[in-house]
Amino acid sequence: MSESKHAGASTAMTKARSMGPIADVVRRAGGSLERVFKRADVPLRLAYEPERTLLLKDQLRIVDGASRELDDPVLALRLSTQGGLAGLGAFGSAVLSAPTLGDAIAAANRSISTGLQAGTAMTLTLTGPWAHWSYQVTTPVDVGRNSNELLAYGYMLDLLRRYAGPDWTPHYVQSRDASEAQRRVAQALLSCDLVRGELASVVFPAALLARTRPQLGVATWPQVAPIPGEDDIVACITQVVDLAVLEGTATIDWVSRHIGLSARSLQRHLSAHGVAFRSVLNTVIRRRAEQRLAEGGRVTDVAFELGYSDAAHFSRAFRALTGVSPRQFQRNCLSQDAR
């Protein structure tokens, strides 16, 4: 694991869509989504850009903070139950394309750390007639572990019910970290006992593993950018820089604080790979600027989105990075589209 290589750093990443429909749920319940994200020190726009990647520890803080905002100890379970596997993008689509429940669970176990969330492991073990499908966060976290367990249960049960039927219930669900308040409410939502154990697990008859779903096509995996591994420190830092640009706080202090390193240690990690923080920041800004300009974004709007005080400052920076002005870049894009 990366902890030994990057002591003190928290580099496990996850897709924003792993939080389920958090924006809709919080606002329908009368909570302040802005307050939740501000307390987590994470850009609010993440709630509306599900393919964005963020640190797993920040996802845990957001979901845990939303639970506190609404005074709902099992909000995480409601989020994943409402969102379901279909809300997990390419990962969910691939898992749901498997012909049998056993194949689907194997696909989820094999792909979760690269297709949805790093720092996470899922395993299936058989004990007599019972199957134990387990989930655990393998990276050190200090906030939100119990809420993250509840988040996992909703997705796991959605998959099981796709094959076993919508009214199916497990033999029992096992939790490592759920509080007593969470256990009481969650049992009603799960329609089964929630007991304490070493691993967060859903326990069900092993015979269900052979259950099939009708009218399934060939399993496919849509092309999406994979989640960076915890050991890829440069890729992880780049993803956090991308969030910092989104927040308008693209400084080395903001990035290092989120990862759990000092600014000097972060720069040392980058230098070991022949990279400087400024070059990472410039790469992110260039990619974001080119993407937004190619989409037809107004130069002034793109400038403000990327944290520039005015369009002129942004235009100078863009020309320095690309050799052309933002407007010329847009004209080039239009001429290419017309061919």
Automatic annotation (TrEMBL):
Question: According to its record, what are the GO cellular component terms?
Answer: cytosol
As one GO molecular function, the record gives:
transcription cis-regulatory region binding
Task: Tell me if DNA-binding is a UniProt keyword of this record.
Answer: yes
User: Per its UniProt record, what PROSITE patterns does this chain match?
Assistant: HTH_ARAC_FAMILY_2
Protein name, as recorded: AraC family transcriptional regulator
- InterPro entries registered for this protein in UniProt: AraC-type_N, Homeodomain-like_sf, HTH_AraC, Tscrpt_reg_AraC-type_HTH
| Entries under Gene3D superfamilies matching the protein | Homeodomain-like
What are the record keywords, sorted? DNA-binding, Transcription, Transcription regulation
| Lineage, broadest ranks | Bacteria, Pseudomonadati, Pseudomonadota, Gammaproteobacteria, Chromatiales
Naturally occurring in which organism (per UniProt): Oceanococcus atlanticus
Q: Where is the HTH araC/xylS-type domain?
A: 235-332
Q: Name one Pfam family in it.
A: HTH_18
